[in-house]
Design goal:
It is a single chain. By secondary structure, this protein is mainly α. It has a domain of about 55 residues. The chain is built from twelve helices and no strands. Helix 6 runs antiparallel to helix 8, helix 10 packs antiparallel against helix 11 and helix 11 runs antiparallel to helix 12. The two termini are about 45 Å apart. This is Outer membrane protein assembly factor BamD. Part of the Bam complex. Keywords: Cell outer membrane, Lipoprotein, Membrane, Palmitate, Signal. InterPro entries: BamD, BamD-like, TPR-like_helical_dom_sf.
């Protein structure tokens, strides 16, 4: 019974993911089409909004609504989890509008989109925390938010970007901790120590850094390195969990 339920859920997710191109958009004036797209956006009807905005973008690529259409598409793609399309639209917009007044928002949305790539449908569905999954999207999101703070420190999105960087830093630290633990379980003592120490150096103010001292201590004990064991125990006293 569970297998059938899971199959049904997966089939539904495929259908939802493929349905955005099914809607036929009537050939109406661009102003009318844009108004309809705005109504769809405001009501959260992302599929309809995307269909209408894509039609505007393809039919009137240099029209009066061109820039705003692309900005709206970036947002709609993000909300609809069309993340690859969102990133492609962000890159296109940035390339064509290097001095646009809303580039801070575009950079912010790129960070959010990269963050969303760290999600996984099955992990969300079953509330599974996988600290060992590929952190590359997280690194990209962190770089996006860092760039936003450097280029646009007074942006209205700067404060939220900074908060997200803190969460992303902890996510990256947890990944390094999971890697160090993997090495420890494989009895690769030196590799476990190196990863733990790299974590402590890169993310010193995280809970994962403190946890990595346990891994480091166990590896040193397995190697019989008395001085290193004592140094690690002192570090653990100075950094209680």
């Amino acid at each position: 019974m569970k297998k059938h339920t899971l199959s049904g859920l997966l089939a539904l997710s495929v259908l939802v993911g493929c349905s955005s191109s099914d809607e036929v958009v009537p050939d109406v004036p661009p102003s009318e089409l844009y108004s309809e797209a705005q109504v769809a956006l405001q009501s959260g009807n992302w599929l309809s909004a995307i269909s209408q905005l894509e039609a505007l973008d393809s039919r009137y690529p240099f029209g009066a609504y061109s820039d705003q259409v692309q900005l709206d598409l970036i947002y709609a793609y993000y909300k609809n989890d069309d993340l690859a399309l969102g990133l492609a639209t962000i890159e296109r917009f940035t390339r064509l509008n290097p001095t646009h007044e809303k580039l801070d928002w575009v950079l912010y949305m790129r960070g959010l989109t990269h963050m969303a790539q760290d999600r996984n449908f099955m992990h969300d569905l079953f509330n599974i925390d996988r600290a060992d999954r590929d952190p590359e999207p997280v690194k990209k999101a962190f770089a996006d938010f860092k760039r936003l703070l450097e280029r646009y420190p007074t942006s209205p999105y700067a404060e939220d970007a900074q908060k997200r960087m803190y969460a992303l830093k902890n996510r990256l630290a947890e990944y390094d901790l999971a890697t160090a633990d993997f090495y420890l379980r494989r009895e690769a003592w030196i590799a476990a120590i190196n990863r733990a120490q790299e974590l402590q150096k890169t993310y010193p103010d995280t809970e994962a850094a403190r946890k990595s001292l346990d891994i480091q201590l166990e590896a040193y004990k397995e190697l019989g390195l008395t001085d290193a064991i004592e140094r690690t125990e002192k570090l653990m006293e100075l950094n209680p969990r």
